[in-house]
Design a protein that fits this description.
It is found in: Cytoplasm. This protein is an alpha+beta fold. It is built from 15 helices and 32 strands. The protein is 26% helix and 29% strand. The chain binds adenosine-5'-triphosphate and magnesium ion (MG).
Length: 580
């Protein structure tokens, strides 16, 4: 069927939407692919829906190819299964909770581990039924704190979520690897530039987990990689290389110095370089940052985090380390309530004397000597030695990761880049099957607890990701696999013979199996060309002035190249260009 612009439900906009910051958001709105209904809630218009469905189909084909079976679960869910795993509480404000008319608690599903686990428990009972991979392409709801960039981070979005169930770890690994390979095929077919990074498992629990990140400057995920070894990891997952402990014997005693007006690392270092022998940098100081942990179902706990003073505490890394607890910086009221915390001069001693848990960066090994707060205004310790003068309660991954840091695999240094998470694969293990006692009868007649994997792809987010990676200042540029139409045929000639010729060409292309968008509007060629660039079909065909001389033009939206071809044989030429 030929789609005619004269009747297509589409209005392109000249101006960028006021709330849009990133190119994909601007272009998808301007080109009439999506329309905003509320923050993070969008309608899909004809062109956008075609891209979404095309992506869905690529995902579906690759999931089917690894033996996944498609089902569809509701988005409206009862509280009980999420209560059983504590996620009703753990999910916090991100969960859309509602009540039905009888007052029963319900939610809009943010992800469906619980439901798939109980579904399998209900249907399967024998080892002979295993393994199984189930998936759905379904609408998810998360009340994101910062819905952003249109459909890139929605509060309603489409996810492909798959779950594997196996009898043992070997089976789980096999299912995990099958998904990993399927995802590689999906993202290759979609022509996305991406990396696979090892990730923290966060609130999901479980062990091995990797994320697929599309490379993009507008991404919210920072990852690091080692160009020498190919190691790549989410910043949250980077494990700091801890030096070997050093001998303590013979180190000079710790001394408290008057260090007036040195409540920052810079002023402290300046004081040391002026007053003490030797040269000092921020790395010689131990900075103690106070935070409050909010663990689900527990009272808030104040802890101290000690990091080398040349590094900031990265709250995302800290939060990943203490998950599911959330992290908050101390307020003025907290400092007032705990007068032993002397702002700018906090040291390990007062923390430990007052029963505050003190966690340090892995670089703070026994035998390292530090300049740090002496818990009195304008006073610091010099030469406070870990393992002699203070003993931390443990280590924590909280310090920022920097370009040039050693790679955890020892192969070189790390460099950072930004990415957008497009997929996530987890070996969950038995977290959910334990919660619901998902057992089948084993070969030996004894029950076997199943082990589960969980695998997500951000289907609607991918529309924005592809737009983000594939556009120019004029508009979108869809890869052929997901373009709403293969060919955008522009009638740029008012002559009746030319119009008839264009209609015939459209019919022939349609008959040849191409999806054709025909710009048959009564608008100027200039307006039509602009729209063609904005909408971004990969092949643009122009029936214009040259028609009288027996030629049409084929433009490649990717390369910008244009070629004149004879009207005779134009169908074959366009088909060849569109399928190239
Ligand atoms: P993010 O870190 O971006 O919030 P997540 O870790 O919460 O993502 P998962 O729970 O792993 O996401 O969900 C699987 C996939 O769903 C993600 O890889 C991502 O592509 C997609 N996704 C998650 N949240 C959103 C959202 N708010 N809008 C659109 N897609 C999303
Ligand atoms: Mg994730």
């Amino acid at each position: 069927m030929i789609t005619r612009m004269s009747t297509l439900f589409l209005r392109t906009l000249r101006d960028d939407p006021a709330d849009a910051e990133v190119p994909s958001h601007k272009l998808l709105v301007r080109a009439g692919y999506v329309r905003r209904v509320a923050p993070g809630v969008y309608s899909w218009l004809p062109l956008g829906l075609r891209v979404l469905k095309a992506i869905e189909n690529v995902v579906r084909e690759e999931m089917n190819a690894i033996g996944g079976q498609e089902i569809l679960l509701p988005a409206l869910l009862p509280r009980e299964p999420y209560e059983a795993t504590n996620r009703w509480t753990e999910y916090g404000d991100a969960l859309f909770r509602l009540k039905d008319r009888k007052g029963a608690d319900m939610l809009l599903g943010p992800t469906h581990e619980e439901l798939f686990a109980t579904l399998v428990k209900g249907e399967y009972s024998s080892y002979k039924d295993m393994p199984v991979i189930l998936y759905q392409i379904q609408t998810k709801y998360r009340d994101e704190e910062r819905p952003r960039a249109g459909i890139l981070r929605g509060r309603e979005f489409v996810m492909k979520d798959a779950y594997s169930f196996d009898l043992d770890d070997a089976g789980l690994k096999k299912a995990y690897n099958a998904h990993r390979e399927a995802y590689q095929k999906i993202f290759e077919r979609l022509q996305i530039k991406y990396v696979i990074v090892s990730a923290t498992s966060g609130a999901m629990g479980g062990s091995a987990s990797e994320e697929f990140l599309a490379e993009s400057e507008v991404g919210e995920d920072t990852f690091v990689r080692c160009l020498e070894s190919g190691y790549a990891a989410n910043v949250e997952a980077v494990v700091t290389h801890a030096p070997a402990p050093k001998p303590i014997d013979g180190l000079p005693e710790a001394v408290v110095h008057d260090t007036p007006d040195t409540s920052t690392i810079d002023t402290l270092v300046a004081w040391a370089n002026e007053t003490l022998d030797g040269e000092y940098t921020g790395a010689d100081t131990l900075k103690n940052v106070m935070v409050k942990l909010h663990a689900p179902g527990k009272d808030p706990e104040i802890i101290g985090v000690g990091v080398p003073g040349d590094r900031e505490v990265d709250l995302k890394r800290l939060e990943a380390s203490v998950s599911p607890a959330e992290v908050e910086l101390l307020t003025e009221a907290d400092f007032t309530a705990n007068p032993f915390l002397v702002k700018g001069y906090i040291g390990p001693k007062a923390l430990q004397a007052n029963g505050i848990r003190y966690l340090v960066d892995p670089r703070v090994v026994d035998g390292t000597s530090w300049m740090t707060g002496a818990d009195e205004p304008g006073r610091h310790y010099v030469g406070l030695v870990a393992g002699r003068d203070f003993t931390p309660d443990g280590t924590v991954e909280a310090a920022e990761v920097r370009d040039g840091d050693p790679s955890p695999d020892g192969a070189g240094v790390l460099v950072s880049a930004k990415g957008i998470e497009i997929g996530h694969i987890f070996q969950l293990g038995q977290k959910y099957t334990d919660a619901f006692e998902v057992d089948v009868l084993g070969e030996n007649g004894k029950p076997v607890r199943l082990t589960q994997g969980s695998y997500g792809v951000g289907v609607s987010r991918l529309v924005a990701v592809i737009a983000e990676q594939s556009h120019d200042d004029k508009g979108l540029r869809w890869p052929k696999t997901v373009a709403p139409f293969a060919v955008h045929l522009v009638i740029a000639n008012k002559d009746e013979a030319a119009i008839a010729g264009a209609e015939q060409l459209a019919a022939d292309l349609d008959a040849a199996g191409l999806e054709v968008l025909l710009d048959d509007r009564k608008a100027s060629p200039g307006v039509k060309f602009k729209d063609a660039e904005l909408l971004g079909m990969p092949t643009v065909v122009v029936v214009g002035r040259g028609y009288a001389n027996g030629t049409i033009e084929i433009r490649d939206r990717f390369t910008g190249e244009a070629a004149e071809v004879a009207v005779d044989g134009a169908v074959d030429a366009v088909v060849a260009a569109a399928r190239a």
